[in-house]
Write a structure and sequence with these properties.
The protein has 293 residues and is α+β, with helices and mostly antiparallel strands. The protein has five helices and 16 strands.
């Protein structure tokens, strides 16, 4: 009852309001230690956007953020620091949870998120006037951000040693995804699902520094509140089996996430489609920076 498929790259994310009259901002590199200073930006009070001139378009990945500034790193490695505030328009496309949204809060600007930014410029630097992002990237970033915010009680020094190598690297590769399915309204694993999960854990254990991201889903039966709780319960059931029966270490597991009936794998209008949507996806993640090393 499992389905293994290649997924797009998941982005590991870690998690800005008018700028002060004179600011000195030290933004730290996500690829170095906490003591590595990435850039220091000094600026004058930012004028009204209507008084600025058009600046260059900046496209890349958000590699750092602090206060009301973000750093965007291009595929070529160039780094650009941008200021944003309540006048910045953040929009998404692609139907995040089934919707296209023309206005998002600036807290959607998560580290590791691919963006395309229209800018305005003044003597103090560049202002992000409009930020475009894809909803599927935001959904993934939000899930992983939630997962990395919470720590398991069983984490030890080995956890910190692992995170020191992979915790600050924004991009992860998805090596594979295994789906296990459930009966209507249930969070009980079948014998086949148990076998598939241990096989996935064994394969992931052979990969250096692999982590597991577990995401639970439901079909469209039932209320949103019930489905949210059920999706979380299913994800928790899978995590417990992976740790207790398959020997997967807690410190190599991101916090499980429940997505209710969002992001269906198939059409909820048919019994066959609903059966596919009653699932938990187990994603095997390997840091892009360490993949293949």
């Amino acid at each position: 009852m499992s389905a293994v498929s290649k997924s797009p790259k998941l982005l590991l994310l870690l998690t800005m309001l008018a700028a002060p009259a004179t600011a000195a901002l030290a933004m730290q590199s996500q690829e170095g230690s906490d003591s590595d200073v990435m850039a220091t930006v000094y600026g004058e009070r930012m004028p009204d956007p209507s008084q600025m001139t058009k600046g260059p378009e900046v496209e890349g990945i958000i590699s750092a953020r602090s206060g009301n500034q973000i750093q965007v790193t291009t595929t070529g490695g160039a780094k650009t620091v941008l200021v944003f505030n309540e006048n910045t328009r953040v929009k998404s496309s692609g139907g995040f949870l089934g919707l296209d949204r023309d206005k998002l809060a600036t807290d959607a600007l998560l580290n590791g998120l691919p963006v395309k930014v229209a800018t305005l410029q003044w003597d103090g630097g560049l202002f992000a006037s409009e930020v475009d992002l894809k909803s599927k990237d935001l959904r993934t970033a939000s899930m992983i951000h939630t997962g990395t915010d919470q720590r398991f009680a069983e984490q030890t020094a080995a956890t910190e040693a692992l995170r020191s190598r992979v915790g600050d690297i924004d991009q992860y590769n998805v090596k594979n995804t295994t789906n296990v399915n459930f009966d209507v309204g249930k969070a009980v694993l079948s014998a086949q699902a148990k076998s598939d999960l241990c096989a996935t854990a064994a394969a992931a254990d052979a990969m250096d520094n692999a982590l597991l991201l577990v995401v639970g889903y439901t079909d469209s039966t039932g209320s949103q509140e019930f489905n949210q709780m059920l999706s979380e319960k299913r994800a928790g059931t899978v995590v417990n089996h992976l740790q207790q029966a398959c020997g997967w270490k807690p410190y190599r597991m991101l916090t499980p996430t429940g997505m209710a009936e969002a992001d269906p794998a198939a059409d909820n209008e048919t019994p066959e489609g609903k059966a596919q949507n009653r699932r938990v996806a187990v994603n095997v993640l390997v840091s892009k920076g360490l993949d293949g090393m």
